[in-house]
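Researcher: Let's run the pair from yesterday's discussion. Sequence first, then tokens, for each.
Model: Starting with the first of the pair.
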Amino acid sequence: MSRGLFRGRGLQIYTWLVIAWLVVPIAVMILFGFNDTKGRFNTTFQGFTLKWYGQLFEIDALTQALVNSLLIAVLTMVIAGVLGSLIGLALGRYRFRGAALLTLVMFAAISCAEIVMGASLHSLFITLGLPEGFPTIVIAHVMFSISFVAVTVRARVMTLDTSLEEAARDLGASTWDTFRLVTLPMIFPGVLAGSMLAFALSIDDFVITNFTAGGTTTFPLWIWGVTRVGIPPQVNIMGTLIFAAGLLIAVVNIVAARRRRA
């Protein structure tokens, strides 16, 4: 009995330590967004202030970098969401020649080191004569995130009750109407989860973006470029807002899921 209790306490302590390890850097980021720093290096807390929230967009280069990252992430989410969902639907629903190879390629893309993929895409763009910049970043981000969407949607598709689709067709629904009214609503949680994952992977990517950016600067690249001269508090605030937006989406999703179950 005491040994089981000790193991249970140990597991609880370990869990809270892991949570603390994940939360502390976020808390520090949020805290230093309120730092009344007097110098270039925002590394020592010197007092509380809200002035940086009023000066959030004063650094034009940083603002443009954030806009670039958000646009790239949204485009990646939409393109990878659509293409990855179709791949996931095909792999989860049908058996066709080349399905095993396609699955292997997807998991290879997921497990591939970012530096390898970034260097490979950089070489590909040079070989094709494509000038690197905003479009090549979008292509690269879609390339590495599409597999995550496909795997997520595939897992959802494999749990579907096909009798619902058969019933819709028996009642006279066309193939398109069956997909639009029956299949898509059932797989939509997987599509949404995969698309949001693609957004998250895109907005904070540094390695692959660094290989394919050309003259375009994204939020992570801008931060890396100013680390030697000091990171302004606006970076912490933007990171805080991005984190808060993600947290809000997660909370809304949980609440909506509970309402559906009720």
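Model: Moving on to the second of the pair.
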Amino acid sequence: MNKRSATLMTGPARTPVRRSHRPPGREWRALGWLLRHPLFLLHPALAVTLLVLVGPVATLAGYSVLAVLVVGWWRGHPASFDRHIGPHVRATWRRWTTYRGRRWASLLSDCGLTREHRHNGETLVPRVMRVRSSTPTIDTLLVRMVRGQDLTHWQEHAPVLAEALIAHRVAVSRARPGVVALVVERELPFDRVIPAPDIPASADEVDLSALEIGDNEHGEAFVISIVRGHRVVIGNTGSGKGSVMWGTLRACGPCIREGVVRVHMIDLKGGVETEQGAPLFTRYATTPEDALALLTDFRDAMKARQEWMRDNGLRSCTPSVETPVEMLMVDEMAMLTAYADRQITREALRLLAEIMTQGRASLFTVQGYLQEPTKDVLDVRELFTQRICLAVTAASHVDMALGDGARERGALADEIPCDARHAGIGFVIDAGSRLPIRFRAAYVSDEDIAELVARCTPRDADVIDLYPDNDGDQDGNGSVWGAS
């Protein structure tokens, strides 16, 4: 019997039975759609139930009050509305206006992404399973492909699909067997360079848990924290890592001047990019050997403060002149953790792991900057509590930097052009919603760094020894480790 024959053998005599090529009735397909979208019936059912139970006047009043509350929330507190409600409203609106029905089928047909059933001539349209709209400029779709399609087919048609959607870019990746994830970037939210933020007038105006270093795509200030955690910034050369670093120092400048924050800098690129700010640093290292010595002293100072905290019955410290934030900044971290002498890298990784697992309560924090986020380069990657991803070269680097599924949810950091026009643009994961938020770090020029040094170089002050049992080793700038 021909293997291509669409027959089944049934019964004792193995009588051939031909398969029917008629598609299921529209009523059954409509029922299946309703089962997949139960909320479509829930809202009308709720309205009818309220009409029967409380009457039309009370029902209309209830819906009116609800509408007023939603509009009031939207107008009165945009930040919380955009975080909790905005993504759901946008996703629902765009699903019904763009990603379903005849409009969606016609769009895919024009782009060559539909197929014709070879027996009954029915047009098979890939079905949108889920729509996310985590930001105003990015939609993420999960689409079930029809038979005869694969990931390569969709990737080849992505440019055409982007033009049809009037989108800036469409990225395609494989979500699971038979399902592709489409990231539709509708527009670029940053069309200009953001100037460096002003240096606060005094330390009292600085919130070390919310330092403003740029803007996010919602039009709000993009803030970072240098207390109670550690941060890593990942990006190619020219992606804007320097803007994040110097923007952080400008935002906390008065605290550096007053001794509330002390900066310990490791720059293994010979100090070329950080030498201008050297007066701001309590410790400064530009060679692997000096960097290892700095790390060792930094760890010992952390241990000394922990001992002092135990003696005084403290579970955590508050930033002050007596207990300053000790901030270790490592520029080009891979030179310390992967590319230096093997003995140095092994000891550096051990010290970094010890500091990052124990330094939170005692206000010892690590801020790392590197280009490649692989485990081979940064074995302690998972210990960083906040991760920032600027422009990178590979799609896999996005998930390595921000966590599994970050790119699928819209963090297209590998699609950011690495040029001056796009420097400082990147993604960070929102702590509340776990959705990627795009931001742009403010550009900090050489003149801005010179202003920072002139205004915020630490003042000469008497040394207060908080740890009388410590040996009081002096560092290279004449201050005592573990004291302020």
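Researcher: Give me one sentence on the second I can quote.
Model: The two ends are 90 Å apart (CA to CA).
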